[in-house]
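Subject: for your reference before the review

Hello V.,

The reviewers asked for a structural picture of the protein, and I figured it would be easier to keep everything in one thread rather than splitting it across files. Below is the amino acid sequence we used in the manuscript, unchanged from the supplementary table.
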Amino acid sequence: MYFGSPVKSKIKNNLFTQSMNNTGSRVIPEEILNNENTDSRVIPEEILNIKNNTSDINRIVSKTSSEFLGNLSDEDKISFVIQDPKFGMFTLFKYHIKYGIHNRFTINRKTIYCSHVFSFWLAIPILIFISQWLIYTTLIINQIETHSDELCPNKANIQEKLLMFAVALLYFCKSFFLWDNLLSRSKKRFVIKTDSICTIIDALQEFGFNILVYFTNLIIIYTETDFMNMLMNCLAMEFLMYIDNEFEETYFKYQPEVALDIFDKLFVSYNDNKIYVIDRLQKQCCFRFVRYITWLPRKLIVLSHMLLPIICFFMVLFGPICK
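And here is what came back from the structure prediction:
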């Protein structure tokens, strides 16, 4: 089947770091690159042949990234930074430690932005990450402590059953776009270098936390007995998913030159990134260890995206009947 082959490919390969499995050579067809209708979501300029020996990397076709960089506006570069799921709170804080501490943009513009200064001194990106998980954890703990009904109590009134049906149906429809979002944001012409532990954590947080919120929201709405609590908890969980992304967008809205500097310093072409990852895997055992221990979570996240429509459809039928 047409659908089966891409799905197997996505499970086999690594969407989070764009590295390829060492199971043999992989050559990207040249006709893909010559397609005039290609955009930033299509595998870009260089065709690589990575053989069983990962140190043997042959560039079969070489179009330098500068050919594409020349066509990028500042808005395009900022968009690449904001949309890359592997650029998150940990990578932003790492940037501040390495580059932002100099406050070059603040000095040049003779304007002091608190978000820029205190992102380093107070580790605001890390505080955003902590707040997300604290709110999520407290909601879960409260739900566990207050829920005492059996699996299928069938005590809810018609309004609560209808809300359960509506939310499950909405999530069923949105679940297909969640998979598209996973694919689209993972394959761009320019990506952040994923040869660091921070980018692995940020990718797990971006995709893993979102899918976890979807599953948790269905459970909370099903187990909650009060109509307004059902609605408020649902909205609170939806809000949680976008806290870190909203922080990035607001931060770069006031300081777009920081996003441009991040693009220039940290972003590379899609295929160049593979070389950085392979080189890091060969040289640093700590990075290899983190890759190995996060292998299972990464695969579970991909599988969860595939299973989400099935689970949501099940809750469309099961939820209203048993709630």
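For the response letter, the relevant points are probably these. Confidence is low (pLDDT under 50) at residues 20-64. The chain has one domain: 73-322.

Happy to draft the paragraph if you're swamped.

O.
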